[in-house]
Amino acid sequence: MVFVHGILGHNTETWGKFPSLIASDPELPELDILCWGYRSGVIPGSYQAVGIEGQALMSDLRLFFKTGERLYLAAHSMGGIVALRGIVDTIQSKMHVNHPLTDIACLNLHATPQQGSMAANVIGWPLRLTGIYWVMRSFLPVQQLWILRKGAYLKALAADVKEHFGGAQPSTNMKIYAVAGKYDFWVSMPSAQGHLNTSEYYPVQGGHQSMKRPEDHLDPRYLAFKVNLEAHVAESLTTLCRAIKSASTPEARRPLWQRFDAHYHKMIARCAETCFGDRLLSDRDIREVALAFVDMGSRGGLTPQQIFNAVVTDITYKDDPRLLDDPS
């Protein structure tokens, strides 16, 4: 799980409770969380062009994560432009058939100005026209602000995104979703939605900053992200479970089970506790639950929590005499 902040943001502060909510959600597997940052500050020369930062993001994803590890991205405001630029440049360089792009399952854009920011227009044009821009460019991220205008840069990027993701044959299997703040002064709801259809777009309460700061697991600002994350996690889990079941030798199964345990051992333990009550759990109990979980997961179409519930039902009622054809 990778979070990318926006202009003048901070990698560990921008997202508030969001990373900890992901980490503590009992309905999700354990995910490695990276709060990725790039330079956007007031120190002279402290920031780079958006294209360079996009390349840096793709490079860091390639270095920090292994091939085959599914990646889920969430980007706020200009962070979404950075991510889109990096992804599009990777596609255009013919590197999209390689890691990390082959492993990015989804990108959630939070208040990303896909069609420009009117507030950036209001602030940027006077600076440009009065000449103050040339004085301030070394001290403020004015170049980054200028990109957020509804200008040629964003129009070209939007055209590239639509070309590679909006057609019948997208360049990658990665999905893009948009979340917009209903009271966002900086980025209008149509700009945040961009070319995405209504099934990929979620308007939520809040302004530019508060719309990505959920308070708890039931907060719509959290659920607007989780609903897509959960669907892509389900796809990844199905693939893993089928690989475990089809592996023909212990040597082939071992790394698959290790990968399964790394993400689901806490959920399996909790499932076993639910199935067997307060008794002291044995390794056999844990193994029975894990095997049932993998068997159910290999059928496809179920989220981890749905598999959890199904396994609990199956194990709890497997010896119930009421389910026998002849209860007597």
Write up what this structure looks like.
The longest helix is centred in the last third of the chain and has 27 residues, at 220-246. The protein has helices spanning 18-24, 50-64, 78-92, 118-130, 132-136, 142-147, 152-165, 189-193, 220-246, 250-276, 283-297, 304-317; strands spanning 2-4, 34-36, 71-76, 104-110, 175-181, 201-204. The chain has two domains: 2-213, Alpha/Beta hydrolase fold, catalytic domain (Rossmann fold); 235-323. α3 (78-92) links the parallel β3 and β4. A six-stranded parallel β-sheet has the order 2-1-3-4-5-6, with helices on both faces. It is elongated, with a radius of gyration of 23 Å. α2 crosses α3, α3 packs across α7 and α9 (220-246) packs across α10 (250-276). It has 328 residues and is α/β, with parallel strands linked by helices.
Write the layout of secondary structure elements.
Layout (H helix, E strand, L loop, with lengths): L1 E3 L13 H7 L9 E3 L13 H15 L6 E6 L1 H15 L11 E7 L7 H13 L1 H5 L5 H6 L4 H14 L9 E7 L7 H5 L7 E4 L15 H27 L3 H27 L6 H15 L6 H14 L11
Parallel strand pairs: 1-2, 1-3, 3-4, 4-5, 5-6
Short description:
This protein is an alpha/beta fold and 328 residues long.
From the structure above, extract its key features:
12 helices, alpha/beta, Rossmann fold, 328 residues, 50% helix, 6-stranded parallel β-sheet
